[in-house]
Amino acid sequence: MKYRPEIDGLRAISILSVLAFHAKVAPFRGGFVGVDIFFVISGYLITSMIKSNLDAREFSFFDFYIRRTVRIIPALLVMTLCTFAVAYVYLYPIEFEQLAISAIWSSLSFSNVYFYLTSDYFDAASNSKPLLHTWSLGVEEQFYIIYPMLLSLIYRYRPERMVPILSVFLICSLILSTYLSYMSAASAFYLIHSRFWELLLGGLAALLPSWYLLTVQRTRWLPEIGLAMLMAAIFLFDSDMVFPGIAALLPCAGSALLLL
Asked: What is this structure's pTM?
């Protein structure tokens, strides 16, 4: 793909807002939405890459998974080893044991499932779980397993229906996420089925043909509107609200508008 500097800018907003939230910088009460922004970016980039390869008849599951592995595993390994080195000094034995267990789940791409089963993201004990942030990596890795297969099947049998079919998956996931946000907050937060729509939103942004956006004159304010939506979520949301569900539409849609 051609280098897109604005995507790196969007990544910067995502990462800095999450860091500011965890550092308890007062204005960034909703900085946790940086994860949702990143999901949209990931969906956009992965869809663009897969669709381009499918169009060129060059897509390979093996090559795709090798590239994902090379991109993710070395950084994950270094981060985990550094975390263990610091944790050995500062954590109690029982906490260190829990860290080791979470590292195993993380290496298997299921840390989000582990933390769903054992904790609440915003509880006080989260400070003693150094690998808690890998839950989002688990969601992305599970998406990488499911999504290429789904996209390839649609492309093979109903390529002209790709956008409508993915839109149905998006709506179903969003409805489920909204329902679970009230009925089972932890599963809504951590698990792939309630986050799938966020990644799909980025994917749909990559698939929309240019004519769908009408004219430059009628869409020239999309970046400003998208950025305003992001800032509203980052500065007005807080960890006490029902999330993700329908509330996550604000930062996710804002991210999609910026990408478009």
From this structure: 0.91
